[in-house]
Amino acid sequence: MKAVVANKDGKISIEEVALPQLQDGQIEIRTSCSLISPGTELHYVNEAAKSSTDHYLGYCASGYVEKVGNHVNGFSIGDRVIAMGWQYAIHAERICVPQRLCVVIPDSLPFDKAVFANLTATALHAIHRASLSKKERVLIIGAGLVGQLVAQCAQVYKSDVYLADISEGRLQAAKDAGIHKVFNPLKKALADSALNATNGKGFNTVFLCNTGDNTSIIQDSIRLLANSPDGQKRGKIIGVGRFKASIDFNVSMGNVDIRYASRCGTGYRDDDYVHGRLDYLPPPGEASVDSNLKACLNLIHEGKICMNSIHTHRIKFNDALFAYELFQNPDHVIGVTLHYE
């Protein structure tokens, strides 16, 4: 079968690889569609070059169940499913994925919409990590795919949502999806725009969905948080993207919570959990990866997550190299799917 591989020389290629071997607790899937997660995948392209080790790319897919392994419940041959998992739900013609990283797709929902549930689960987990409540003023910095999904999930939670990015194309996509309060820091300083938009009240929560050096952005985010009655800053900053930052912790920060939202729910990287060999409860206010996947698939099915403006490109699997080249000009590229049929 064919798969997308990041080579140790730092290049991406489509290669002939061995078929995966179905294990207990897994289902084998004939891939129909997969979703590129640019931030994570391009990171591993660089990692492949640094480590001189090849990496399979991709972790969000959808397709038809071809085989069902031992000790699997809830799946049958022919089911249409989404599948998630690094080194499992790769960009390949056939994949074998642990059962708790798969969900059956409603009949009326096409593969290329359903597959977005996988990254939406990352966004929903970030919402849970923020302990988000209704009517909070929320700022999302970074309007890439995950940032767009965090903004839409926050809107589902009835938050007052604001979004900042330096790309006019991405901001327009957000507007088309119903996120109307947007800022471009290249046009006017973020702090000025954001504080003016909230009449000086500031934000209860800031999500950082960008990459690079966030030292100055975190400093701005602290200044943008709302004041409590005693005049001290109080709010939450949630890291979602891959970034670096240097933070000077001192009393002048106020009572600020800085948290990171890793991956897409409790149990995601636990092989025993995702294969169904182990059970445990998530922390209060959070959810397991399988619960998040089901919830996000339902949000998409109910039309609460809008795909029309953020699903920007549909590319044939055999043209996958072209798909990655698109991200060199990210202004008009957000959600890119690969199609195998």
Automatic annotation (TrEMBL):
Record's keyword terms, sorted: Metal-binding, Oxidoreductase, Zinc
Protein name: Enoyl reductase (ER) domain-containing protein
Domain Enoyl reductase (ER): start-end pairs: 10-334
Alphabetical list of Pfam families matching this protein: ADH_N (PF08240), ADH_zinc_N (PF00107)
Organism: Nostoc minutum NIES-26
Gene Ontology terms for molecular function: metal ion binding; oxidoreductase activity
Cofactor: Zn(2+)
Origin: domain of life: Bacteria
InterPro entries: ADH-like_C, ADH-like_N, ER, GroES-like_sf, NAD(P)-bd_dom_sf
Family to which this protein belongs: Belongs to the zinc-containing alcohol dehydrogenase family.
